[in-house]
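Record type: monomer structure entry
Structure origin: computed from sequence
Chain ID: A
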Amino acid sequence: MTVYSYGISGMGDLVFPSDPMYSHPLPADTDKDTDIQCGAFLKGVGIFLDENINEVEKIYSEKIEKIHIILEKHGAFYHPCKVVINGRNSQPMVVNGAVSAEAIRTMGKEIKALGKLKNKSARDIPEVYFSGEYLLESGKAASFFSAPWFEGFCEFHWSCLEDGSLGIKVWEDDGSRSVMQEKEVSDFFRKAAAILSRSYDFDTFDQIFPWHHAAGDFVVCRDLEKVDVRLITVRQYTSLLSMDSEETDLSDKLECLFHFLWNMLMRMRLDRLDGVGELVWAPDYVIAPCIAGFFEGLSEKAPDSKEMLMIIEAIPEIVRSMGSDHLFSLHEEIMSACNPMASDIVLIKKHMRAHSDSVFEVICDCSKNM
């Protein structure tokens, strides 16, 4: 029989029903779910794992004798729990829990999206081990899915540094904030763009969207030699364009690929200061690594495809033939489909001409190195 124990990050490594924090309301962005207690939620995670204990044993290839569940944080939709198996802190898994109706719907979409991406052998995103919906002891519905815990990976955001410049600070597990060097920042943007580009389907136009730096969707793990990057949530994986993929030619596919690229590059530059403050626009130097990551992702996606190799080699010349003014008009087209009053769209439009011109220059320069 598996023994379960519980904890709440920042409140106690071990939490028992007699502790006040056990009956503490589960934090939420709205008042809808404050009647759910942390203890009831943790027990729900335990029931979810217990009913899937055979799957857990397959993953770890051993008998599961004890499981420690730590409620780690509270996002806009999910309440992630770190799950330590048989006392081994080095190989945890995560169980994401959703309790509001909107969050449960969102989780259903994410599980479906991650399943589609798994079939495409996507890398650096979560793999769903198992999932299910249950009733908590309060009678409230909850939805859960388990996945690998990205050990050592941390959230990050643009921040005002001591010298007044804009830099990225990593939110370390010990609560400190460390500043990423410019090379590390460039490595991050290259790898983040590569993840999204590898996941883009050239034939169906499916892509990961929406995603947001402000929501902490990407995380980083730094060591002395490199920066590793993961995308920790996939809210949706579908086409953003109303174009029938079965009736498209190469020209249509290129148009959709460029739409993906322009949209990705604009949104790569958005974040909120320190994650919760005003919207900020990343410096120009992130454009080149993002574009490098785009080409890298396409190359890795289809290393043996002559068609893809031809497209990659042709992109700089196609962009050059567009001219900077036409490229700017394409950016305007993309933004015209968005809510003009949304704060992120207002910021994008403020910087769009300079951004579009920089993108034009960087891509045209790529031809010199291809």
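Annotation 1: The longest strand covers residues 88-98.
Annotation 2: Residues 190 and 293 are 4 Å apart (CA to CA).
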